[in-house]
Specification:
The protein is mostly beta strands. It has a single domain, classed as Sandwich (Immunoglobulin-like), CATH 2.60.40.1890. It is built from 1 helix and 11 strands. Strands 1, 2, 3, 4, 5, 6, 7, 8, 9, 10 and 11 form an 11-stranded mixed sheet that branches. Strand 5 and strand 6 form a beta hairpin. The longest helix has 13 residues. The chain is globular and about 45 Å long.
Length: about 160
């Protein structure tokens, strides 16, 4: 039962509509996948890790899975999601992959699913951009650009809502 509840929490967090995502920004396409709303907080020089947020939409008829993240300024990347443990407590779990079903949009956001870049070797300030490569099981490699926002930015803002 608790595993079911954990799956429900993750599924609910993954199904958040992109209308509640960050800015529109540039869209990146690979096969039937569209990736947009890419952003990260600025990080201090001593930061060991930083999260990246985005929206992935599968416009195709077959599922695909995000299986890896690559870049040259960090030592590793993790897909993380909040889940319920055996005692019913909410904790963060590392995932090996995240499936994007046909017709589904998945929004990674603070407090929910995220990409965590570990072992940062570079500092990014508000207004900077950096590149990552998202690796999908079927669509393959997709290079994307991530916008860096200040820590004081209102992350409930959405250009899609005209705010």
């Amino acid at each position: 039962m608790r595993r079911f509840l954990g799956a429900v929490v993750v599924a609910g967090l993954l199904s958040v509509a992109p209308a509640f995502a960050h800015h529109g920004g540039e869209s990146f396409h690979r096969g039937s996948l569209v990736v947009n709303h890419l952003w990260a907080h600025e990080n201090v020089r001593v930061a060991h890790a930083n999260a990246v947020y985005l929206t992935i939409t599968n416009e195709g008829t077959e599922p695909d899975r995000l299986i890896a993240i690559e870049g040259d300024f960090f030592t590793s990347a993790e897909l993380q999601a909040p889940v319920l443990d055996e005692d019913g407590a909410l904790k963060t779990a590392s995932l090996t992959a995240i499936e994007i079903a046909p017709g589904q949009s998945l929004t990674f956001q603070p407090g929910g699913v995220q990409i965590l870049l570990v072992g940062l070797q570079q500092t990014f300030l508000k207004g900077d951009h950096f590149h990552l490569v998202l690796v999908f099981e079927k669509a393959g490699r997709l290079e994307v650009e991530v916008e860096v926002e200040g820590r004081d930015h209102d992350h409930h803002h959405s250009d899609a809502l005209g705010s």
